[in-house]
Amino acid sequence: MQTKRTIFGNKGLPYLLLAPQLAITAVFFLWPAGQAVYQSFLREDAFGLSTTFVGMRNYEALFNSSEYLNSLQVTVVFSIATVIASLGIALLLALAVDRMIRSAAPYTTLLVWPYAVAPAVAGILWWFIFNPAIGILPYALEMTLGYDWNHNLNGNDAMILVVVASVWKQISYNFLFFVAGLQSIPASLREAAAIDGAGPVKRFWTITLPLLSPTTFFLLVVNVVYTLFDTFAVIHATTSGGPAQATNTLVYKVFDDGFIGLNLGSSAAQSVVLMCLVMLLTFVQFRYVERRVTY
């Protein structure tokens, strides 16, 4: 089989076509990242009138700060809960759609709608639902279980709120990819397993899930990045990192220290640590988790 190759008559044309994307990457990604790294070695006053080079002191102060270590712990709990819940629920919904024939299209459309909602709007929506004064869920919990819900005072309630809002926002994205992955699995494989006597559960664990592993791995990487960055608006709209730092994740602490506390050097150091953490997690996922993926 002969492979066709595209040959450009003008050697500079490929670089010209890449130039817009390279320019966007340099201006909006590489330059800000470089500025953050540079600023993390500085200490500035709140008005930007004086700047002092302090070397690694901002990083030393971070890892000696109980508040920062607490935000790291909060981020780990929040990320694990959000990733597991969003992937698990999306997979269950995708399996339900895969078994439907006539009503699959409208069912899929309804489930995709939440993805069009902005994160801040999703946060406000769930804030109203869980509001201890006017929300319907706190009233239902008190009437049925006698539980006094108040995410303004209870850190566990606040964590549940931000996890639920973040999961609801991300389920649609995961659902679409799981549906596409399920539809790409040949029906003959599952039919052959059914003929051999394998039940639905065994067919799922031995055929469906292994063949879904590339999709699951991709979504795992995307969801980890989502929990570390894109959930800022949800947290800001619901709890603002409270109560008592119970939902103050790493990305929200970068904003809180930099834009509210005006500690620009510490905020820049936190953003660099967060960027390195994401790079490390992505490397670990591709280096070790990908080994279990069946292509």
Task: Explain what you see.
With 295 residues, this protein is mostly helical. The protein has a domain at 67-262: MetI-like fold, CATH 1.10.3720.10. It has helices at 13-39, 57-63, 66-99, 104-112, 119-129, 136-144, 155-183, 187-195, 200-211, 213-230, 232-238, 250-260, 264-287, and strands at residues 42-44, 51-53. A two-stranded antiparallel sheet has the order 1-2. α1 packs across α13 and α7 runs antiparallel to α10 (213-230). The radius of gyration is 24 Å and the shape is globular. It comes from Roseicyclus persicicus.
Task: Break the fold down into its secondary structure elements and pairings.
Blueprint: H1 13-39, E1 42-44, E2 51-53, H2 57-63, H3 66-99, H4 104-112, H5 119-129, H6 136-144, H7 155-183, H8 187-195, H9 200-211, H10 213-230, H11 232-238, H12 250-260, H13 264-287
Antiparallel strand pairs: 1-2
Helix pairs in contact: 1-13, 2-13, 3-7, 3-10, 5-7, 5-11, 7-10, 8-9, 10-13, 12-13
> Mean of the pLDDT scores?
88
Please state the CA-atom Rg, rounded to the nearest Å.
24 Å
CATH architecture of the domain at 67-262: Orthogonal Bundle
General shape: globular
Helix content: over 70%
Q: How is the CATH topology of the domain at 67-262 named?
A: MetI-like fold
Report the sheet with the most strands, covering strand number, pairing sense and barrel closure. Answer: 2 strands, antiparallel
What class would the helix/strand composition place it in? mainly alpha
Total strands: the figure is: 2
Strand content: under 5%
Low-confidence stretches: none
Strand order of the largest sheet: 1-2
N/C terminus separation: 22 Å
CATH class bucket of the domain at 67-262:
Mainly Alpha
SS element count, helices = 13
